[in-house]
Amino acid sequence: NKKTFSDLQSAVCEKYKDLISLVKSGDLPGVTNVFNSALPLFSEFYGGDLPCIKNILFELLVNARIAAHEADNSFAAPGAFPSTFSAISEIKSLEMLRPYILSCLAGCVQVFLNNQHFVYSPQIEKIRAYINEHLAENISLEDAAEIVKMHPVYVSKLFKTETGENFTDFVTGL
């Protein structure tokens, strides 16, 4: 049951996107689990070529650090990238690369955890903007759900998860 190049490429892209998304959500256990399952996949995709694997992992770190820098501009100034590249270049095996990359990703995750109250999904951002623009009106959960084309029950749960308060309390508290 050999994977085709296209299947591997799709799986690599999906893992990469999942890792960035998990970093942004502040989910360190998720990052660790996905990274541990992604590393063998990256190795398979690049035929075990360590320099190629290092390149994709460096790119992953750059994107994670850029996202963390956008969340907190005191983190990961662009000057940090050459030292990261240098450190990755010195590592001689995949197994030695694993803890280094995970520790760098953990640093990015921590930025998002520290700034979690500023990081919302695009849907919640859109709902919050709508609420602020329509404060004088009666705003319902159904209205908010319609704005983002999602089910009201899901919007309610997502809103509570991301903001820490339920939708109605948020609206009435403004």
Describe the structure.
By secondary structure, the protein is mainly α. Helix content is 75%, strand content 0%. The protein contains nine helices and no strands. The longest helix has 22 residues, at 50-71. The relative contact order is 0.10. The model has no long low-confidence stretch (mean pLDDT 88).
Index terms:
174 residues, elongated, 9 helices, single chain, mainly alpha
Q: What gap, in angstroms, lies between the N and C termini? A: 57 Å
The largest sheet is:
none
- Give the DSSP E fraction (strand runs of 2 or more residues): under 5%
Helical percent range? over 70%
- Pairing-aware structural class of the strands and helices? mainly alpha
Mean pLDDT, nearest integer? 88
Cα-atom radius of gyration: 20 Å
What is the string of helix and strand elements?
HHHHHHHHH
Find the count of extended strands (DSSP E, 2+ residues): 0
Silhouette: elongated
User: pLDDT below 50 for ≥5 consecutive residues: which ranges?
Assistant: none
Tally of separate helices: 9
